[in-house]
TrEMBL record:
It is found in: Cytoplasm. The lineage of its organism: Bacteria, Pseudomonadati, Thermodesulfobacteriota, Desulfuromonadia, Desulfuromonadales. Keywords: Activator, ATP-binding, Cytoplasm, DNA-binding, Nitrogen fixation, Nucleotide-binding, Phosphoprotein, Repressor, Transcription, Transcription regulation, Two-component regulatory system. The keyword ATP-binding applies. Member of the two-component regulatory system NtrB/NtrC, which controls expression of the nitrogen-regulated (ntr) genes in response to nitrogen limitation. Phosphorylated NtrC binds directly to DNA and stimulates the formation of open promoter-sigma54-RNA polymerase complexes. The gene is ntrC. Residues 141-370 form the Sigma-54 factor interaction domain. Residues 5-119 form the Response regulatory domain. This is DNA-binding transcriptional regulator NtrC.
Length: 472
């Protein structure tokens, strides 16, 4: 198939103009619609090879339009544009059959790449039967950064099918939340979602937890126990820390995935189970396969669709949104007064490396909001940031300078752009001189040498900047 004719529907004139012009330049024939209804009429009148729709339009909304077009012309690739890059939007668009999803303002190259990809795709999505009604999301994932947008896209695409998903990511990146979102966006929504952390349960008990046992199966088995597989029948089972599952159990899990039936320990009958497995790990499973700690066949069976969650430090731009979300949540749940974060504190939070990811951020915000008597949370409410920006005896001078100046920059509050050059230099000068004087234990001759300035110049700067030699 080859894409020539593109329909662009957007109520914003500037967007229509830009797309018509740039797509036209690339050799496409572009037709414009100013509303969803007009787009529908044009689609009924003329053949198109691709449609680009704005999600928010007066009248028939982009999402409703998307559902209508996808129902009538399932093979037509539809690219959805939105100014609001929430998870709900992206997931909803992909669930309703969008080919791809773009957040405004976007690069025209990004749209061109999508069109080229659609062009190359040899087979299009099979016609969807009846669309499942859109369901409200259980608990939304917060984040609008590019890596999170990719997560939402995959999530939206796989939620409706029963494929096995393997979610990877460091601890606290939201793997369980993603698993819940997959379940919450699937047809299994009203059936159970059960989670089991394979690392938190002793090996001997894990088998019973998963498969259950019959009365008298072993000493102490006084009652029959129904395992998680049976309890989750019709729904989804989230197996967290799957890399910690013992090898014998891995073999049993593989059998359930293949045969779709289980046998309780001590039992003889096979029991059919219809359960979607969503697995997660923060380990390198491929490495474990190589080290023979994880079955290769099970790895491939689980890893049909991989979803890799970014570490929080890789999406620092999402931190203000997350902070705002957690503060509001606290306000609602704990009945706390409204709280906000100062710009310096936010900058500090964005700069921190978050080894515990979103869970650590959530805890830090909770702690700060509960302990602080003030409506505005400042750097002082996050003492670990001071340590992260504080001194370290073993650090090299270069590393110390880079880290401290970086911290000063992050904490700088640019109020206006007048005199920016002087302001930034001034901001850097004091900590730089302080660090070097600190390192040379106040020896000005050595400090001037390291700084590469004349000793008199250093003395004058110490005076004009009011550097306290005793303290520093
Ligand atoms: N994108 C997000 N938006 C909002 N909250 C989030 C997000 N990601 C994680 N959280 C919150 O952070 C906490 C940790 O998330 P979750 O338990 O899903 O992480 P995990 O990757 O499964 O952790 P672990 O590997 O330690 O089990 C939860 O309270 C969750 O609600």
């Amino acid at each position: 198939m080859s894409i020539h004719r593109i329909l662009v529907a957007d109520d914003e004139e500037s967007i229509r103009w830009v797309l018509a012009k740039s797509l036209g330049k690339l050799g496409y024939q572009v037709e414009l619609a100013t509303s969803g209804d007009q787009a529908l009429t044009l689609l009924q009148e003329k053949p198109f090879d691709l449609a680009v729709l704005d999600i928010k339009m007066p009248g028939l909304s982009g999402l409703d339009l998307l559902s209508r077009i996808h129902q009538e012309r399932p093979a037509l690739p539809i690219v959805v544009m939105t100014a609001e890059s929430t998870m709900a939007n992206a997931v909803e668009a992909m669930k309703r059959g969008a080919y791809d999803y773009l957040t405004k303002p976007f690069d025209l190259e990004a749209l061109d790449a999508i069109i080229l990809r659609a062009n190359q795709a040899t087979e299009m999505e099979p016609p969807s039967k009846t669309e499942p009604p859109p369901q409200p999301l259980d608990r939304t994932l917060i984040g609008r950064s590019r890596p999170m947008q990719e997560v939402y896209k995959v999530l939206g695409k796989v939620a409706a099918s029963d494929v096995t998903v393997l979610i990877t990511g460091e601890s606290g990146t939201g793997k369980e939340l993603v698993a819940r979102a997959i379940h919450g966006n699937s047809a299994r929504l009203n059936k159970p979602f059960l989670a089991l952390n394979c690392a938190a349960i002793p090996r001997e008990l894990l088998e019973s937890e998963l498969f259950g046992f019959e009365k008298g199966a072993f000493t102490g088995a006084n009652e029959r126990k129904i395992g998680k597989f049976e309890q989750a029948h019709g729904g989804s089972l989230f197996l967290d820390e799957i890399g910690d599952m013992p090898l014998e159990l891995q073999a049993k899990l593989l059998r359930v995935l293949q045969e779709k039936e289980i046998t309780r320990t001590g039992g003889v009958t096979n029991i059919s189970v219809d359960v979607r497995i969503i697995a997660a790990t923060n380990q390198d499973l491929q490495e474990q396969v190589r080290a023979k700690g994880f079955r290769e066949d099970l790895y491939y069976r689980l890893n049909v669709i991989p979803i890799s969650l970014p570490a929080l430090r890789e999406r620092a731009e999402d931190i203000p949104l997350l902070v705002d979300f957690f503060l509001r949540q606290l306000q609602a749940k704990q009945n706390l007064a409204a709280r906000a974060c100062s710009a310096e504190a936010l900058a500090g939070l964005q700069h921190y490396s978050w080894p515990g990811n979103v869970r650590e951020l959530e805890n830090a915000i909770q702690r700060a909001a509960l302990l602080s008597p003030n409506p505005q949370l400042t750097l002082d409410d996050f003492p670990f940031l001071a340590t992260a920006c504080g001194g370290d005896q073993d650090e090299s001078l270069e590393a110390l300078i880079a880290r401290k100046l970086n911290c000063s920059l992050m904490q700088m509050n640019v109020q206006e752009l007048d005199n920016l050059y002087d302001m930034v230099l001034h901001q850097m000068e004091r900590p730089l001189i302080n660090i070097v004087l600190d390192k040379t234990r106040g020896n000005q001759v050595k400090a001037a040498e390291i700084l590469g300035i004349n000793r008199n110049t250093l003395r004058k700067k110490i005076q004009t900047l009011g550097i306290d030699l005793k303290k520093d």
